[in-house]
Structure to design on (133 residues):
């Protein structure tokens, strides 16, 4: 079974290639969008590279849930996720750390939930569930 450190190292290497950044810029707590400069098109490339690197399939909705793009006022109101919206996000993204996001759940800050460590934990879970770990 691949250790978390091994998966984290491979995820970091994948991000270096996908985002054309230096390895020393990547820390486990680095956010893909805010800290590493990933844009929406980069996320597609990152998913493709992760699938190839780890031999897994990542359905779009599994990593980027529909609730994140909702216009349902029960989930998102005035640009902020409601308590119900946060609960749905947490259910959809069990590997994300919501501690800071809950203090200011602005939809515009949603991308900050995607840290290097969160992606590594997601990939490790996929490996375990697919029997590849």
């Amino acid at each position: 079974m691949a250790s978390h450190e091994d998966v984290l190292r491979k995820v970091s290497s994948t991000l270096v290639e996908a985002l054309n950044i230096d390895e020393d810029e990547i820390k486990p707590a680095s956010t893909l969008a805010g800290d590493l400069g990933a844009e929406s098109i980069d996320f597609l490339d990152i998913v493709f590279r992760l699938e190839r690197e780890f031999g897994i399939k990542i359905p779009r909705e599994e990593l980027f849930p529909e609730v994140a793009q909702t216009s349902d006022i029960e989930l998102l109101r005035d640009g902020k996720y409601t308590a119900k919206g946060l609960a749905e996000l947490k259910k959809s993204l069990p590997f994300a750390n919501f501690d800071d996001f809950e203090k200011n759940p602005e939809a515009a800050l949603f991308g900050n939930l995607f840290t290097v460590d969160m992606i590594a934990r997601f990939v490790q879970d996929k490996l375990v569930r697919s029997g590849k770990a």
User: Anything to note?
Assistant: The first helix runs from residue 4 to 19. The chain has one domain: 4-130. Strands lie at 76-77, 80-81.
